[in-house]
Design a protein that fits this description.
The structure holds two protein chains of two kinds. In chain A, 70% of the residues lie in helices and 0% in strands. Chain A is mostly helical. The longest helix of chain A has 21 residues, at 158-178. Classes of the chains: A mainly alpha, B mainly alpha.
């Protein structure tokens, strides 16, 4: 498959070739869906929010100035849409460390025989984290974004991104240690 | 003393730090902690995407097409409203002109012909007469109400579609 640059696709869409938008959808749907699933913890909601995010992105494309990468710009739309969705559901997304620790103390991941696959196990662990922590882990490991890029997407400072990343990683490590069957999986 | 922040910084940088590794190897507790972090880090590096089928593309494009159709419909509604209001304005302006011309022809003597010499003054004079007319006093608020209600529903439909 020919690797067409994002900016060329965007130029084509701006010229009126609406069908070229499917190229962008194909390129980013799985990564954005992974982010949303990990943030929203619900497959159907994640799909709905992603559809809306793509539509928002389409209508916002004329204002895209090529100053940042399309991926960063699009992730910002997806991330903010997820936060809006969470806020509308009145979920508490701004959990402090104390509440995170309380939550993690209650956590026990049941890794039954069928679930003893690394992919399932790690996703289950990430699902235990608050939305922002899941998002940072997803950006850093799944999308290979730098802390600077994550900060740009989330609209926060690099130091804040690092704090969230460290806390998320430490929380996951603690969960891993608590879970006796972890050693077998890893 | 090796703490979690130092290990996290090490994992963030993705670079080898021999000094840190030497310090970690000196303590059994630090080594166990570091190993746990390393295991987690390598597991997270294998993190995979959830996948969506081609139906997703179709669904998004269908939604976009639906939005285009809605926008087109809204544009038509806007055009219809503008044409309607324009027609109403033209109708009343025409009515006023007809009234002015009719009166101008009929009145040759008297107050009007003595005091007004041009069509603008006559127009203002008859406009005042019409606005003080009791039938127009009823029609105008009704028309204004209809326009306001139409504007409200139009604004609401725009807001909801956005």
């Amino acid at each position: 498959m020919i690797d067409i640059k994002d900016n060329d696709i965007i130029d084509s869409i701006k010229r009126g070739n609406v069908s070229d938008f499917t190229l962008l959808i194909d390129k980013y749907k799985n990564r954005a869906f992974s982010l949303l699933r990990r943030m929203l913890k619900d497959e159907m909601e994640a799909e709905d929010v992603l559809q809306e995010s793509f539509i928002k992105a389409y209508y916002a494309l004329p204002g895209f100035q090529y100053k940042s990468k399309f991926s960063t710009w699009f992730y910002r739309i997806v991330y903010n849409s997820a936060l809006t969705k969470l806020a509308s559901k009145k979920r508490n997304i701004e959990k402090g460390m104390s509440s995170l620790e309380e939550e993690l103390n209650l956590t026990y991941i049941d890794t039954s025989d069928d679930d003893k696959e690394l992919k399932v196990w790690i996703n289950k662990m990430i699902e235990q984290l608050p939305a922002k922590y899941s998002a940072v882990i997803n950006f850093f490991y799944n999308d290979d974004l730098s802390c600077e890029e994550i900060g740009e997407v989330m609209g926060t400072s690099v130091s804040n991104v690092k704090v969230i990343l460290h806390r998320a990683r430490t929380a996951l490590k603690d969960m891993m240690i608590k879970n006796k069957s972890t050693e077998e999986i890893l | 003393m090796i703490n979690d922040d130092m290990i996290n910084d090490f994992l963030d940088s993705k670079k080898e730090d021999k000094d840190l590794l030497n310090q970690i190897n000196k303590s059994e507790e630090a080594k166990n902690n570091f190993d746990a972090y390393k295991k987690l880090d390598s597991a997270l590096l294998k993190l995979e995407n959830y996948e969506l089928g081609n139906n997703f593309n179709i669904a998004v494009m269908a939604k976009l097409k639906k939005r285009f159709a809605e926008q087109k419909k809204q544009k038509n509604v806007l055009l219809a409203v503008v044409i309607f209001l324009g027609a109403v304005c033209l109708f009343f302006t025409g009515l006023l002109f007809a009234y002015v011309l009719d009166k101008t022809e009929k009145v040759t003597d008297g107050y009007l012909s003595q005091n007004t010499n041009n069509i603008v003054d006559k127009f203002i004079y008859y406009f005042k007469q019409i606005t003080f007319n009791s039938s127009l006093n009823v029609v105008a608020p009704v028309l204004a109400f209809i326009i306001l209600v139409s504007a409200y529903f139009f604004y609401e439909s725009r807001r909801q579609s956005n």
